[in-house]
Cation transporter atpase p-type (Rhodococcus coprophilus), 783 residues
Amino acid sequence: MTEASPTPSWTARLRARAEFIFLVVTVAALVAGGLAWILGSSTAADVCWIVGTVIAIVPATWWVIGALRRGRVGVDLIAVLSLVGTVAIGEYVAGALIAVMLASGQALDAAAERRATTDLRALLEHAPRTARRRVGDELEVVPLEAIVPGNRVVVGPGEVVPIDGWVASDLAVLDESVLTGEPMHVQRRVGESVRSGIVNAGGAFEMTARSTAEESTYAGIVRLARDAAAESAPVVRIADQVAAWFLPLTLIVAAFAWLAGGSATRAVAVLVVATPCPLLLAAPVAIVSGLSRASRLGVVIRSGGALENLGQAKTLVMDKTGTLTSGRPTGTDIVTAPGKDAVELLRLAASADQLSPHVLAEAIVQEAKKRRLTLSMPTDVIEQAGTGVTATVDGHRVSVGALPLPADAPGWARTVANRAALDGAVIAWVAVDGDLAGALLLVDPLRRDAARTLRRLRGAGLNRLVMLTGDRHEPAEAVGAVLGLDAVCAEQTPADKVAGVRAERRSAVTVMVGDGVNDAPALAAATVGVAMGARGSTASSEAADIVLTADRLDRLADAMVIARRSRRIAVQSAVIGMSLSLIAMGFAAFGYLPPAVGALLQECIDVAVIINALRALRSDRARAPELREDTEAMLHRFSAEHEVLRDRLSVLRDTAQLLAEGDLVAAHAALRRVDTFLFGTLLPHERAEDTELYPALAEPLGSGEATATMSRMHAEIDRLSHRLRAQLTQADAAGGLHPDQCEELLADLYGLSALLRLHFVQEEENYFTLASETDSATDLDRS
């Protein structure tokens, strides 16, 4: 069995050349002997066949010696005995056939592994080694190791992004298929992050490095790929154990055939059909093929053992942040004090936070950049750990962070605090010139694909889903309830996580998924550790058995399907091959199968099981609906529109808040803004989904019924929108809102807000996750 290596060395090339020569010489000897026999020269034919047999004895003997050195006694010994036996009894043509069989089996096995490891090898060859660094107006090509955080790097068309960083140009068009397996190009704009290893599919762009080469995403993946050669998986070790009893069984049957038939020919025939055992060919080929298939989908698996264990898993333990949630806080709402402008508040806060490394500060800055706000450079910046940032921006002293809320805080501020507690949001208070001016609410949203992926994982054989998180109980329980988890453990330390994983492992094969440094010990403690490597820490990636290079949780479900299929094919191929060999041994023992015919039959068996094992390379046709290119583009378009619409849904709650406070004049004006939003933006979006998107999804989803419930929700959204318009018409006719209208207006506003948020989540989970994921910023106006 040839060991799979993702980086071909001179020894691997020498071995491949020797295998080729071995095959050519044995085939030539067999063919030359056949031609000589046809021409009537039986002596010359025998000489050619003997030469081919003797040539095969040398490597076969070497394989036996190598196995004995490793403490194994395998079926290679049967090969040596059968080759020697054919020469001893004068069955020279059978010996030549066995020689060809051994040579072709080795060649097929090696070719299968080379094909299966192409993706891993390409990953390493793809690694960049230099970068263009910009210094002032000059460009210099420097070794990748010379790049440090903060350097400005220029990436040319078709080049590989050499290091992790942020886009500094207006637009970068990128091909991320090498890491994620997704064929669609993605767009990144100013301030958005890019990972090393992806390809520039557009014009040249500039980026700012945020890490060294050693710490970059691609360097970590390359280190994993070097270790990802197919080790001896459990099913392969079982194969070795089976070989231990198959060898004595073969010798016993051969001895019985000799004693019962009184002829050594029968014994040699038994040895011939038992050589080599398909078990040792099929299992490794299927496992390595599974590794290759997984790597194409952005899943780097360290070993065949990890692949097999994944295929037998029954329990899944997960971290929350970065695994079930996006791991990137996003702004959900901007609340201002009366008379303040929300857009200006965000601009001031983001300007003050530009130099802060805090994750919430980064989220605020990114939110402002997505809205295309022009930020000012802060001065006199003071940052206090655990509190926030204070800086001077455009002549104003701006403070952003966890500011203490005074006892006599205004009503709007108390409302914000209550909303944050209910929604599990983090508040970044903003004070301008010493006065509380507003608040930014940020949450870590669930991954769109989380619920669908967990359903797929249950369907793949997992029967227990557990979440271990260091987060507070309230948001953890909320996530667990939405996703239908079997157990939720909150406020867990790294030691608690390790203990929890070990407890689960005692009762079932356990998979742990995480992405942070604090997850590394738990990943190492699990039967199979899976790291979200696209943005996860180096520590978690190094501790894991499997790394998801794409920032998509659904890749884990894909990997599990591949693991189960690969193991099933491996066992199936081995059992079929063994059964056929045992049947052939029985025929040979009773004299019904001469050595030459047995050699041909065994060759067919070996080829058949290897071809069957290569089925593990093929994709699972039922994995996901096939989408047309225009349908996928449509999904991305409506997904981007959702991001814009979600930002503007706050107008419903703001209007309801004004009604609740009794400010009917302001509520009347706000209701006009609601009407403009609903009929000018929201309802056209919903109608476009009904007339364009849903019909396009009918074919890949099987029927139009798959989107029928969403269309019904559109009808309800339309009904509530027209109710609100009717209330506005009454208010306009009466010269203002009447107190009698407040109750119905509150019910309609809160009902529509809840319905829209639920509807958006359902569409994103059921439909938008079918498309390849991009994080490109939308071109639509978010303000």
